Amino acid sequence: MRSFFYILSAMAVMSLAYWAYQENYKTQQAVGEVKRLHRQIGREREALAVLNAEWAYLNRPDRLRELAEINFDRLGLLPFMPDQFGRVDQIAFPIENLTSLSNSVDVAGELEERQ
Amino acid sequence: MTRTPLRPLARILEARQKGENPDAIERENIRLRHEEMRDKARVRAEGRLLVLGVFFFCAFLLVGLRMTHLSGSAVAEPNNAYLGPSITAQRADITDRNGRILATNLVTNSLYAQPPVMVDRVGAAKALAAIFPDLEEDRLIEKFTGERTFIWIKRKLSPEQMQAVHDIGEPGLLFGPREMRLYPNGSVAAHVLGGASFGREDVHAAEVIGTAGVEKTFDEYLRDPANNGAPLQLSLDLTIQAAAEQVLNGGMRLMKAKGAAAVLMDVHTGEIVSLVSLPDFDPNDRPRPLTEGVASDSPLFNRAVQGVYELGSTFKIFTAAQALDARLMNRETMIDIRGPLRWGRFRISDFHDYGAQLSVSDIIVRSSNIGTARIAQQIGPARQRTFLGSLGLLEPTPVEMVEASGGRPLLPPNWSELSAMTISYGHGLSTSPMHLAAAYASLLNGGTRVMPTLLRQNGPQQGDRVVSSETSGIVRDLLRQVVVRGTASFGEVPGYAVGGKTGTADKPRENGGGYYEDKVIATFASVFPANDPKYVLIVTLDEPEVHTLGEMRRTAGWTAVPVAAEIIRRVAPLLGLRPQIEPSPASGITLTSN
Fold first, then answer.
1. What is the pLDDT of residues B20-40, one digit of tens each?
2. B:74-93 residues touching chain A, CB 8 A cutoff
3. Helices (DSSP H) in B132-237: which residue ranges?
4. B379-392 pLDDT per residue, tens
5. What pTM value is reported for the model?
6. CB-side exposure of B391: number of CA atoms within 13 Å?
7. Which of B507, B538, B554 is nearest to B256 (CA)?
8. Which of A1-15, B85-99, B220-234, B358-372 bottoms out in mean pLDDT, i.e. has the lowest?
9. Known catalytic membership, residue B313
10. Out of B187, B235, B277, B313, which one is annotated catalytic?
């Protein structure tokens, strides 16, 4: 009985050691992965910052104004002026679709006798 | 294990023969056995103690060694595997009120040289001079062949330049990573942003520090890692700022002015939506401050915040508002305006002769100096000073720019009755256009004090009451009348019910001794829509003159007002204000009690 416990505990120690060894390496691998991802995030953020800066640079008001002037023939863009505001009642009602002549119109029906 | 018998037969028989007690032998043997057992136990215990002692010694040694090691090693950052991604730029971005970028960072490289490890010093100098036209070949050769072991060559390199330098193939030319500040919009809002430069420098990194404007005011905030890269959101609107700059620039050229400033401010929140000072500069390549001459000639000078001028008749509305608020008079009270008004050796006269008397409204509408001075006489210097102080006109503005503290108003050394009379129409007290914007906003938003701010706000400011809301209403109406039938008739913008007050002040000579005859500061302080004020716009032109209708004209009504009207026409739709039909003033029927 005693030796059985000895063997059991020895095996438990060995398996725990094996487990700890494995976990240790797994953790190290995970930490390495996280570091790699952090570096990647850093690089992506840097790239994003460059793209944002470029977007802002390409959309700077001076450039947009020049582009609007260069492409005036095609786009006809003008500064936003007060008379460009409209009211809802200035918009015409949509023209109702007239039914085409070839379509038959249902004119026959049953008259109901009143009273 | 062999057991020695306690009663060995041989000895017992021997003892019996001699007649001795055999038990003595047994006891003797038991004693011996016990002694032997005791000795064994002691040795065993001693051995255990030794093992335990060695174990504890090793343990303490381990702890001690580890502690010595820790105390001796450099502090390392904890392994932040679970702190989340925290790699951000060194300095936060600055955005406008809609999140459009006004200032951001870009990673570049700097170039330095280590002559001791250089292979071909003269060749490298020649190649560098070919890449960078601003570097002189002779000076580079001199530096490379001299005693120095380390030389900075360029602070910022573009990727193309970096590749070109790389292609030289010189091992002594090295690159250091740099974060540089980029202002993608160029000169738009240059005065507000200010600029940034490098602080402490190293081969591997450099500090980016703000040198002016909000960059300097919020330097600590922008560099604080605790904000985790959250941008600083200003109250400016990039589109409106650009439009205002464009129109003001055009107006400045048309009116042949040497400088111009405009402030557009929300009357309820105190947010500055646009702040323009011309001429301006590119913050990416900030010019050096002037070392001689007048500071206001430099493009770095912010006329809207730093420039203190006598803003002329725009101050008359403060006098009228105070008199109305104190119930010294109502808007129809007639004031004697026969001139010139003499006070000691001083004479106050009007631009035109407006007759013998005018009502308070007409004094504002026609802009009568004599009338305003008479009103100020009734108010008195002490009360006037308190009132102007409550509008914030006697101390630097609290705008979040380092330059704001430089815009300290110039007060008369002795606030006499004569000072009160001249200040009532805007002479003798110099303030910046920003002061005027804040004071107009306080007067027109219903009568509570607003502080101008460059940061985006979430709601209206709850300031101290300056004037009653009725007075505020009358003031709105008076300003509207100035545009409808007074000196600012060019300020009419259909649909926006502009109200405002013109001000033309002679420029004082720099070296003292009176005023220039032909140089003025023309100001138009406007509010729109006057029936429900939302924004205040101050436009100031420095030394404008325009030749119209056969005459050289310098007054604000001919110079600043049309420019301001054009700005309102362009900017009001961008602010989301729809043109509206102005509610007609109440008809002639007045309510009376029987």
1. 888 888 898 899 999 999 999
2. 79, 81, 85, 87-89
3. 137-145, 159-168, 190-193, 213-217, 219-223
4. 888 889 999 999 88
5. 0.78
6. 28
7. B554
8. B85-99
9. yes
10. B313
